[in-house]
Each structure stands twice: as structure tokens, then as C-alpha cells.
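[09:14] KT: can someone run the structure on this one? pasting the chain below
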Amino acid sequence: MAKKRLKRSKKKAATNDPASALTPWEAYQQQQKQAQQQKTQTKPTIEHKLPRLKELRHKYLVSRLAFLMTILVLILVITGYFVSPLSKVKLLSVSSDQKSPLSEQTVIDASGIKTSDSVVDVLLQQRSITKKMTKREPKIKSAKLVVHQFRNIELKIKTYKTVGLLVRGSRYYPILENGTIGVDSTAQPTSNHSVYSHFKSGKVLRQMIKQYNKLPATVSNSISEIQFTPTKLNPQRVHLYMNDGNQVYATITTFAKKMQYYPSIAKEMQKKGTVNLEVGAYSYPF
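[09:31] RB: done, C-alpha cells below
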């Protein structure tokens, strides 16, 4: 009798369990639904995200405001600089790679820069200023602008060397190594440079200067005067007066090549005389 009651109670308990009454497919669907509900409950909602979003938005606004304030301050500083005396040129100076034949004021005038000019404007126009300097003053070979202590501008120049003096009338004009004739003149030579006379063509003079620059210093320094004396047979003849008392006849196109032999020829001469280098090389006394 006890056995029958136990079996009935087990059967009744099984009937009260809802899962035991479901088919396997329905039980699987119910498990998936419960898992989805649990996942939804653990997933953060928009309410949970709001504080983080507010914090990010605040940081963005602060960084944006800081950027705008920085730009505004920079604009104010730049504007204040340009309207203040600190933006103007305070001092102008001149330096050269060698002993310059130009005075400091001449170089400054050639640049056109004034102490009332803006330093920034001067730097922006640096190329046009240096080009203007070489055009206004032929002795300037190249120029460069350097700023010191924000307001002091140094004009660093390179000048052409003076290689001779050209006689025109009673005035002596400097001849530069590029064949250009200087505009400033003197009544008497103020240097030991060779004197050039009777040169009317700029082209012929430049050819002569080019040949002269090829000479060793020992030979070029021994020439006192060079005269252009063309003939029908030799339209490029030059007549030289030497510091040792001799005279030389030569041709411009072969001048540098043949004049290098002059020291040895002069050394063999027993008396002062003339050395002819037009055709060959020979000498004869006065």
C-alpha cells in the first residue's frame, strides 16, 4: 500500500513542473528568451551613458575655448607688435669681406632702408633690396641682410676688387674686376693700380681686364700703365710702361700667355729697352 502512494506522489510532482509538460523545442525557446532577458538587464542603458557624455562634452568645450583664446591672444600680440616701436629698424650697420672701397653710408643709401621701416617688411623684401643694391652701386658684388637682436640689421656685402684706373681727360676712374667703370673719380691716382688709357670700347677694355687678371701678382704689380695703341696690322696692340723702366708691346688676345715670360726676358736685358711680344718674343735697347 505504501509503494502505491509513493508512485502517485512522484507522478503528481512531475505533473506540477511546467518544464516537464513542454516539448524539447518549447523548452529551448524558453531558455533563449530567459538568456535574452538577462543580457538586456546587464547591458548599460542611455541613462548610464549620460554622465560620461556630459563629461566629454565639457572637455571638448573647454579645449575649444582655450584654442580660440590662444588665437585671440596671438592676434593681439602681433597687432601690438606692429603698432609699437619694437617693430621698427633700430640700427643699420655694414660689413664687408674685404676692405671695402665704399663708405658705410653709401651702402646704406644703396639699400634704401630707413630706421622708420618695419623689420618684417625689410625681411620680406630682402631679395628685391639686395638686387637694388647691386644695381645702384656697381662695386657691390653681392649683398645679404642679417637681423641681430630683433631690430638691428647688418648689411653684409661683397665688393668687386679694383684692378686698375682708367684715364678719361684729367680724371682717374676705378676699373673693377668685372670690367665695370666706377662713377667716382679722382684728379690724381690714390693707389698703386695700373693705369689704362686710350680705351674707348668697353668690350676691348673687358678683354684686357680678363687677360690682366690671369697674370701672376709679381708680373701685374710691375705694370705701371697700359695704353691701347691699335694698328692696321695689329688692331689689338697694347703698349705697356713697366715700373723697372722698360716698355712692352703685346697683343690683348695673347697678353696673359706671353707676359708671364717677361721677368726672365727683362733679367737677360743689359740695358733698359723695349720688349716685343706681338709675334714671338724679343727685346732691344732704347
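[09:33] KT: thanks! Residues 9-15 have pLDDT under 50 and may be disordered.
[09:34] RB: yep, looked fine to me
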